[in-house]
Design brief:
Elements lengths: L5 E3 L10 E2 L6 E2 L14 E11 L5 E11 L3 E5 L6 H9 L6 E7 L3 E4 L11 H11 L4 H14 L15 H14 L4 E5 L7 H18 L2 E5 L3 H7 L2 E5 L6 E6 L19 H22 L1
Parallel strand pairs: 6-10, 6-11, 8-9, 9-10
Antiparallel strand pairs: 1-7, 2-3, 4-5, 4-7, 11-12
Amino acid sequence: MSRPDIEPATTAGAAAPAVASAPLLPSFDLAAPPAAAPAPAPSIVRLDGVGKRFGDGPLVLDGVTLDIRAGEFVCLVGASGCGKSTLLNLVAGLDRQSAGTIETPAAGSAVMFQESALMPWLTASHNVELALRLRGVPRGERRTRARELLDIVNLADAADKRPHELSGGMRQRVALARALAQDRPVLLMDEPFAALDAITRDLLHEELERVWRATGRTIVFVTHNVREAVRLGQRVILLSSRPGRIAREWRVAPAASSVNGGARERRTETPEVSKLAAEITEQLRKEIRRNAA
């Protein structure tokens, strides 16, 4: 398939009606055609029958088919060892699938791992500038752009600090700014908040949601934390235990609007998040029990 914005990876193995309002009692024209729904965003990542096996070992992934649309926030959950990180690495191009096809944007993806992996001898600003330098951004622009990116993650006042002077949450925000500096349409995040305490993680959830809405990035987020997945994702994909297959997916209802009309984030402690998280957790437990049987 030829797409101007998508570059196929190597293939291996098998292939509302109109309303007229009266002053007191509204009336409805049932004969009027419904308003056209907005066109869905195009797919930006496509996986078709993707499988992965390391050497002569057992299958890690098997028959994974998934479409991710531009600007979508998708969370992958599953038991340890089900292939979530492996799938992320395949989409990133860090490894090759054993079967099936993967289509990703020609511009590629930025990856954010669990560890911030900052250069300890560089300041926060210089760590972000490094990504800009690798992109070929002229030296005269790099410092200004790095400060802008740090400001996006609310860390402009720490631009001149080195990693050892920053908390774990602050280091992850620098890592997020560095990932954004790569200016890729897709951001792949592999359990980036797993090592943080609960309060810091909640704060970074808010930061990430704000950045996602501001930048329009497509985000694929791997996590073991079901509540985190429901809190952040528009879709939650459950992978079965090894070999990893898509066992089930959920579309998460958007958060209610605030009183002033703006979007309001979902919180991990709200009844809606708790209810859906409990449902997904029960399905995850079934997958774990099935694999153990």
